[in-house]
Write a structure and sequence with these properties.
459 residues; alpha/beta; 14 helices
Amino acid sequence: MKTASKEISAVSLVQEALNKAHRYQDDYQIFTWINDAAIERAKEIDARIARGEDVGRLAGVPYAIKDNFLSPDGETTASALILNGFASPVTATAVKKLEAEGAIVIGRTNLDAFAHGSSTENSYYGPTKNSKDLERVAGGSSGGSAVAVALGIVPFATGTDTGGSIRQPASFNGVYGIKPTYGTISRYGVVAMASSLDCVGFFARDAEDLDLLMRVCAGQDPYDMTTLPDYYGQEPATDGPKKIGIIKDFDNDAVAPEIRQALQRKVELLQSKGHEIVELEMPALKYALAVYYIITPAEVSSNLSRHDGIRYGYRSENSAHLGELYGNTRDEGFMPENKRRIMIGNFVLSSGFYDAYYLKAAKARTLIINEYKHAFEQCDFILTPVSPSPAFRLGEKVNDPVAMYLEDVMSVSLNLAGVPGLTVPAGKTEGGLDLGLQLVGPRRSDQSLIKFAKELEEA
């Protein structure tokens, strides 16, 4: 990652990023807002460097934030009409930490509204396009961030991952993306989706940059009681051959041939480097998608209840009374997928259905957690596909919720178990589309996971 110095000015780094952002924006719809005033922040960094001051490990590095991170820079809309015009009075902890190290935000990236989706088509601002094919999706929900890094606009971008929203777009665009152990990075100041599953993470061009970003942002935060004591960077170094688990249940005809071939190539590479391949049976994972789409809507319905058009954001006009104002604002302000999840969530939590759906899903989640614990007694890491297919065409699945939900079948179990996952590029299809695989580790193994990804990168 290129940082500012006496030889390379922050202004030149930021100006180059802004030029690229404007050049690509019309075709790819990457940003919800571009921060041309970032040049002033870059001038401040250059002045501090000239005075010999310590400007941080990310001095002058331009970056993009997913538009669900609160910050006074631009409006935080989460790509939804209902937050149109919302200027945040607070700054997300992750953003504070990045900017304390000298990073400079050049824009806010597009996402599925409130991070509800797997393609970035469910955005009030329109879909972000894939970095290799304008007729295909970028993945979601953090599609804008993935494409911003893939096109070289910025060296890194923030993302959130509730069921694959970093790992899948990273796979679709040929970049690295990490979903840390739940609680590693503070969620304070991030628009909530499903609070027991949401993770803050990053996109970058290589594993080395992910390591630096994790060192900057990991740690306990008094504003987020779910954060863990700072363990990142304190894991004991482990070298030598590893046992790599392959989940037998994920090797089936539902997975595209290109994905299975990419996995086989990576397995052969690992074996050539002396690593042992272990076949895993994890039968509880077949329930993961159903569990996820009960627990997630339940938490979504609770978190979205705060958006009513009264205190901030969009407000519907011409309502005769308060109840109508609430109804009209939410009807006009939420995207169809937001409404779908609110309705499902209220249903599974309602009287008479709570025990039948939500309670059973919570118990099945415990089975999935225990399944991962058992798996990591047999291996060091797990290697799986991120998605059953490469990037699909725009419009192909957006009107078929079940088909879109099935995009998450290989990624949601990590969030349910709270374990870290890291997407690594794994080649391309014959048509030039990017392919990715995910490395999975036990809880708090994030540093070891990134270190192993570096070894794969070098190989």
